[in-house]
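Researcher: Here's the sequence for the chain we discussed earlier.
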Amino acid sequence: MFLLNVFAGVICVRQTSSWFAPGPWLPNRWREPLTDAEYVEFPAADGTKLRGSYLANTGWRRKGVIVFCHELNGDRWNALPYVDDLRQRGFDVLSFDFRNQGSS
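Model: Thanks. This is the structure I predict for it:
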C-alpha cells in the first residue's frame, strides 16, 4: 500500500507540474485600443513607470472615477467589456497596465 501511495504521488506531482511549468494557463483576448482614450503615465513607489488610459464617460455628467485593475496576463484594454456600461452611466475609468504587463 505504501509503494502504491508513493507511486501515485510521484505520478500526480509530475503530471500536474507539467501542466503549470510553462506558466499559468489563462487565455487572454487581445483588444483593440480605443482612439478616444487619453494616455497616462505615472510612477510606482520604486520609480517604475506604469502606463495606462483614461476613458472619459459617455454620459452627460461625470459621477466619479473608477480604477480598473486587469487580470493576470491581461492589459489595460481588457477593461473594455466590463466598463462600457459604467461609462454610459457617467463614470470615468482609469485602466492601467501592471508592471511587466501590457506596455508597463
